[in-house]
Amino acid sequence: MAPIAITIWAVSSLFNTVDGILPGILQKIAPGLLKDANGQEIRFPGIGAALVILIVIGVGYISSSFIVGRLVSLFDKVLEKTPGIKIIYTTVKDFFEAFAGNKRKFNKSVLVSIEAPDVWRLGFITQDELNQFGLSEYVAVYVPQSYAFAGHLYFVKKERIRLVTDLSASDAMKFAISGGVTDIDDDDPHAETPAK
After folding, report:
1. pLDDT in tens, 49-85
2. Non-local CB neighbours of 45 within 8 Å, separated by 6+ positions
3. Does residue 189 surpass a pLDDT of 60?
4. Is the pLDDT of residue 191 over 50?
C-alpha cells in the first residue's frame, strides 16, 4: 500500500501545485476576479494544470521556429559569457543536457570496478577521453547513489569497465537509483544496445 499511497500523494500534490498557479496569478493581478457574490473563491479544478500544459506545448512549438531559436542561442551566448552567472548557468545547462536532448551523457551504462577487482558498481560513461587531465587511458564514469540523484565521478582505466549491453540506459539508471531492488523487464522493446 505504501508505494501506491506515496505515488498518489506525489501526483496529487504536483497537480494541486500546478493547478494553483493560474488562480494565484489572477488573484494578484485582479483580487476580486475569482470571487462569487458571497466573497468565496471560485475554483475550477484542472484548468490551471491544463493551461500550464498548453503553455509548455506552446513554448516548445514556438521555440522550434528559426527566429526564436536564434534569440535563444543569442541569449545562451550572453549568459555563458557573463561573469558570475556563467558558472551557475553552464552547470545547470550541462546537468539538464546530461539527462535529455541531443547531448545526453547518460546513455552508455557500464559496470565499473573501483575498490576491489571482484566488486562492481553500475555507472555511466560521461567522457570517453580525458586527455585534458593527462589521462589518455582513462574514461569518466558517473556512479549514481541509491535513492538519490547524487553520485560520484570516477576516472577509471578503460580495462576496469564493462559495457552493459543487455540493459537500456534508463533501466540501468532506475536499477542503480533503486538500490538494485527494481525488477528489469527482459522483453523491453525500447532497450538500447550500446556498441561494444
Report:
1. 777 788 878 877 776 777 777 887 888 888 888 887 8
2. 19
3. no
4. no
Cell (9 digits) for 136: 589518455
Cα gap 178→172, rounded to integer Å? 10
Q: How far is CA 141 from CA 9, 69, 98, in A?
A: 35, 32, 13
- Residues 154 and 120 sit within 8 Å (Cβ to Cβ): no
pTM of the model: 0.50
**88: its cell numbers:** 551557475
The one-letter code for the residue type at 173 is: M
Residues in Cβ contact with 153 at an 8 Å cutoff, skipping those fewer than 6 apart = 126, 140, 141, 142, 143
Q: Is 48 exposed, middle or buried (0-12, 13-18, 19+ CB in 10 A)?
A: buried
